[in-house]
């Protein structure tokens, strides 16, 4: 569609009615469900072309909104990334609306209107709870505040503005008007703090949102008198975390100020940088520049203060100072500033005292990347810095924040969970895997004694390199995904859930060999559900297992439900620990690799990420609530039966919660 086409339609009397009649005819008469496989794509393009013309009309958005549900039900999103709305990432919307072709822009616009109908109009989408839809729109609006507030686009965006640019601007204003201008900044800031309370490794989207908030507040057009109260700490953490950087002077000017500063001022800079980093989980480029300057200018004694180390981290730094210096030199740059936080937390964990870790990191520093690995990292991280720099920075982040890794927009929860578990419990094995892939672009593993070479295996669920992931995931996930799929093939025909054998062989010896599952694989029926719940209490509840703690993190499977309690699917998580929360309620603390642990699973079961004794990256639920969504777990087999009998009414209550949600319609298998 050209600009002339758009204006001709918009200016013609009755033009909108003609366009709507055409769109309705294509949607209702020639539905996508009725199209043959060969004609499906052509029909979808006809529908998108009609919708595109409505989108370009000045008054088209309310009409498209009224039809968004019908278009979704007809299958306009079928076979595309937009078909799974729960997996969509807000940070990708801006690029699509700016640079994509008109059919793709139209598809994105229809998706946003679908989110709006779910959030406000009562349209039911089983895969998209209303709260999640509202949260998604809030983040999208935050990342597009430049369109809303009229701030100038950069040259790339200005050159990319096509015939639909005015329509996209109208779409953002329409969404803002519907969601509400008076609360968007307040909600956005609260959302950022909620996300950062989980301390994710990937924070580029958070930083982008903070930038947009800063622009909105500086423009004077923001209509939220309280927005600055929560935003100041976020903005200053990125753009002015210290006295010498407070007005965001730029890296060269900041380094010049440091060179002229006295010892006390340099010490104050170090403390301020560390305070901002640990307060928010965000690291300023100035912090990275400061860290490099301390070593180059002969101020190594400032390192502990700049990293915010306790006595534990300080001891590790003193013992391995040469290695830490080398890691800073190789990985810490203004473009990889978050690695400062990873380095600090890695030292605090004390894992360098494990004999294989330091030699493995030295090996990483000296390992040349294969051409394939270099290309993959450049595709995901860009070419401004060497691929090796991004990889080492990613390793520091993963070793420092094992519970901060996420699967991105990829069906690879098993692989993301494995990376987290190894970083948490078996970091030398993780470093061995990285060494294999970075040198030879393959993993050599074993399953029940038989070798497995990922370079010879077909792709698994992740058919492409995950570009929306951290550097370690970019390299390892494609290989782990192939390995996982191959393990499934080797377990085919055994008559039981393959995770009985896959989990211990893939993750490590420390995964419990006792395997419990509440669902019959062949029929999908419940299999001794009450007995399953009793076994879980006997294995993990301190009141019934002799007060035994969780020794090693254990893989587990949950039946994910939406905000209405409806079953969505099976999902891999890690059971970290069980204990009393500050209110003396027994809770299960676990890791969810899906990028954001805070979720509403329906019927009052809402996952908490802070405020109930969670450590960074953990989600938690009351023990019974967690058990009601659990369908698979491992244990070490040391507790054959509960030390104290679990009350029947307690088991019955939990079983009722499960049967009312994910187990609705599942029969009980007769034993």
Strand content: 5-15%
Main pleated sheet: 6 strands, antiparallel
Envelope shape: globular
How many strand segments? 8
Strands of the biggest beta sheet: in what spatial order?
A: 3-8-4-5-6-7
Note poorly predicted spans. Answer: 1-13, 151-159
Give the % helix: 40-55%
Tell me the number of helical segments per DSSP (H or I, 4 or more residues long).
30
Note the gap between the termini. 64 Å
Q: Based on helices, strands and strand pairing, what is the structural class?
A: alpha+beta
Rg over C-alpha atoms, rounded to the nearest angstrom: 27 Å
What average pLDDT do the residues reach?
A: 88
Q: Overview of this structure, please?
A:
The protein is an alpha+beta fold and 671 residues long. The chain contains 30 helices and eight strands. It has a six-stranded antiparallel β-sheet, sandwiched between helices. Strands 1-2 form a two-stranded antiparallel sheet.
SSE blueprint:
Blueprint: H1 3-11, H2 15-29, H3 37-56, H4 60-74, H5 93-99, H6 102-120, H7 130-143, H8 145-149, H9 155-160, H10 165-179, H11 181-196, H12 204-219, H13 227-239, H14 251-259, H15 263-280, H16 285-296, H17 303-307, H18 311-319, H19 321-331, H20 339-349, H21 357-366, H22 371-381, H23 387-400, H24 413-425, H25 427-440, E1 444-447, E2 450-453, H26 471-491, H27 499-507, E3 514-517, H28 529-540, E4 554-561, E5 567-580, E6 586-591, E7 619-622, H29 623-629, E8 630-635, H30 648-659
Antiparallel strand pairs: 1-2, 3-8, 4-5, 4-8, 5-6, 6-7
């Amino acid at each position: 569609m050209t600009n002339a086409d758009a204006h001709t339609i918009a200016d013609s009397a009755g033009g909108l009615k003609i366009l709507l009649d055409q769109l309705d005819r294509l949607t209702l008469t020639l539905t996508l469900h009725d199209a043959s496989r060969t004609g499906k794509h052509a029909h979808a393009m006809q529908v998108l072309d009609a919708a595109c013309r409505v989108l370009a009309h000045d008054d088209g958005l309310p009409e498209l909104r009224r039809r968004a549900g019908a278009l979704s039900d007809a299958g306009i999103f079928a076979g595309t990334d937009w078909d799974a709305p729960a997996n969509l990432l807000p940070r990708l919307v801006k690029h699509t609306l700016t640079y994509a072709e008109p059919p793709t822009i139209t598809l994105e616009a229809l998706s946003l209107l679908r989110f709006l109908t779910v959030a406000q109009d009562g349209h039911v989408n089983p895969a998209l709870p209303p709260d999640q839809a509202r949260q998604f729109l809030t983040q999208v609006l935050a990342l597009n505040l430049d369109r809303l507030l009229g701030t100038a686009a950069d040259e790339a965006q200005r050159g990319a503005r096509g015939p639909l640019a005015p329509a996209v601007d109208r779409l953002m204003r329409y969404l803002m008007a519907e969601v509400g201008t008076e609360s968007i900044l307040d909600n956005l800031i609260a959302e950022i703090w909620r996300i950062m309370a989980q301390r994710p490794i990937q924070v580029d989207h958070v930083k982008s949102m903070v930038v947009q908030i800063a622009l909105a507040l500086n423009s004077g057009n923001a209509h939220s008198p309280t927005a600055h109260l929560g935003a100041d700490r976020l903005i200053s953490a990125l753009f002015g975390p210290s006295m010498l950087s407070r007005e965001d002077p730029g890296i060269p000017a900041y380094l010049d100020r440091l060179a002229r500063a006295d010892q006390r001022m340099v010490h104050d800079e170090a403390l301020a940088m560390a305070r901002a980093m640990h307060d928010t989980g965000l690291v300023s480029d100035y912090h990275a520049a400061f860290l490099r300057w301390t070593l180059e200018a002969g101020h190594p004694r400032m390192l502990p203060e700049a990293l915010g180390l306790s006595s534990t981290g300080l001891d590790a730094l003193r013992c391995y100072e040469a290695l830490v210096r080398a890691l800073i030199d190789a990985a810490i740059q203004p473009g990889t500033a978050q690695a400062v936080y990873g380095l600090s937390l890695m030292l605090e964990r004390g894992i360098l005292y494990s004999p294989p870790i330091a030699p493995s990191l030295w090996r990483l520093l000296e390992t040349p990347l294969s051409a394939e690995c270099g290309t993959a990292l450049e595709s995901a991280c860009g070419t401004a810095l060497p691929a090796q720099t991004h990889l080492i920075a990613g390793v520091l982040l993963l070793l420092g924040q094992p519970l901060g890794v996420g699967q991105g927009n990829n069906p690879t929860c098993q692989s993301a969970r494995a990376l987290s578990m190894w970083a948490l419990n078996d970091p030398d094995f993780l470093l061995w895997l990285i060494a294999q892939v970075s040198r030879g672009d393959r993993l050599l593993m074993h399953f029940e004694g038989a070798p497995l070479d990922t370079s010879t295996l077909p792709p698994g669920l992740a058919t492409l390199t995950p570009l929306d992931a951290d550097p370690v995931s970019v390299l390892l996930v494609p290989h782990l995904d192939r390995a996982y799929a191959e393990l499934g093939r080797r377990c085919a025909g055994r008559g039981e859930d393959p995770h009985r054998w896959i989990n211990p062989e893939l993750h490590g010896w420390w995964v419990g060999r006792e395997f419990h599952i509440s669902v019959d694989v062949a029929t999908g029926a419940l299999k001794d559900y009450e007995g399953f719940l009793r076994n879980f209490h006997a294995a993990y509840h301190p009141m019934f297992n002799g007060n035994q703690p969780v020794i090693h993190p254990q893989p587990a499977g949950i039946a994910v439900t939406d905000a209405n309690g409806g079953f969505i699917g099976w999902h891999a998580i890690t059971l970290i620990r069980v204990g009393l929360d500050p209110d003396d309620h027994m809770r299960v603390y676990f890791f969810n690799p899906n990028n954001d642990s805070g979720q509403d699973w329906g019927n009052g079961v809402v996952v908490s990420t802070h405020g109930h004794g969670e450590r960074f990256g953990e989600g938690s639920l009351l023990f019974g609530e967690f058990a009601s969504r659990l369908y698979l777990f491992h244990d070490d087999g040391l507790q054959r039966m509960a030390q104290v009998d679990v009350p029947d009414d307690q088991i019955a209550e939990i079983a009722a919660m499960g049967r009312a949600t994910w187990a609705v319609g599942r029969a009980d298998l007769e034993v």
